[in-house]
Amino acid sequence: MKISSWRPLDRGLRPLLWVRGDLCLPKFERHVFVCHNARPADAPRPSCTSDGRSELHTQLQQLAKAAGLGARVRINKSGCLDQCEHGPMVVVYPEAVWYGNVRPEDAAEIVAEHLAAGRPVERLRVADECLNTNSCPHRG
Amino acid sequence: MKISSWRPLDRGLRPLLWVRGDLCLPKFERHVFVCHNARPADAPRPSCTSDGRSELHTQLQQLAKAAGLGARVRINKSGCLDQCEHGPMVVVYPEAVWYGNVRPEDAAEIVAEHLAAGRPVERLRVADECLNTNSCPHRG
Q: Which of B53, B43, B25 lies closest to B84, judged by CA?
């Protein structure tokens, strides 16, 4: 691998992520997807919201803007992220950091620690063995 | 930088992306977000769908599954990705490749070229200078 052909996306306190310049062009520094999925009450899998509205999303948006991150970070609504047993779910790209059981009161820590300072909030991360697998022990 | 502390996420024909193992744990090989936003007909910015339904999304899902990518790639609904003048919009992470003006008939090429073979579809990419900026010449 020729190091000279790689460039840093992110410096300082934020996670180091090197990409090949010709293939990878993240235009937001971070892109946060907040699940808004709402299933019927009797559905076999749980929902991240009860009615398609998310106070968590609102808090993340407002706090990111207040922290001066409005142009660098996008807080996005998403449909089902398929980690329903661990919801409410949030995933942050390009790092692909998955947060579970996230409450509106967690928004300030995610914004200050992860989005502003580049330190993922470990206490909210979903365990690796639970992600994207039918064998997750929390899945019925 | 100590190369020994980095690991490859993706090999072969796919884009090379190296991450620090303790911070970056992408659990889907690729995560595709398809904008489903629908504004009123008289809104100042255009919409990626007319009614919140997306045949493009359906095609990407079906073709990715048919290509054997069901467990490695997630095709996700998203809310507004804020590149409305270039819609219908799609963004693919972790590479952060942005596609614009994407039609259902483009789905097969995105699946075969990008999602399966790791070669972004250049003809569909939105120009860098148009992304995430109010100074995009296409923005009214």
A: B43
Average pLDDT over residues B8-30: 46
Please measure the distance between the N-terminal and C-terminal CA atoms of chain A and give it in whole angstroms.
44
B interface toward A at CB cutoff 8 Å? 1, 3, 6, 15-20, 23-28, 31, 33, 36, 71, 74, 76-82, 91, 93-98, 120, 128, 131-132
Q: Which residues contact A122 (CB under 8 A, 6 or more apart)?
A: none
Please classify residue A99 by burial: count the beta carbons closer than 10 Å to its beta carbon, then call 0-12 exposed, 13-18 middle and 19+ buried.
buried
Confidence at residue A20, expressed as pLDDT on a 0 to 100 scale = 38
Asked if residues B28 and A83 have their Cβ atoms less than 8 Å apart, the reply is no
Read off the tokens for A139. 């899945």
pTM beyond 0.95, yes or no = no
Question: Using a CB-CB distance cutoff of 8 angstroms, which residues of chain B are in contact with residue A25?
Answer: 95-98, 128, 131
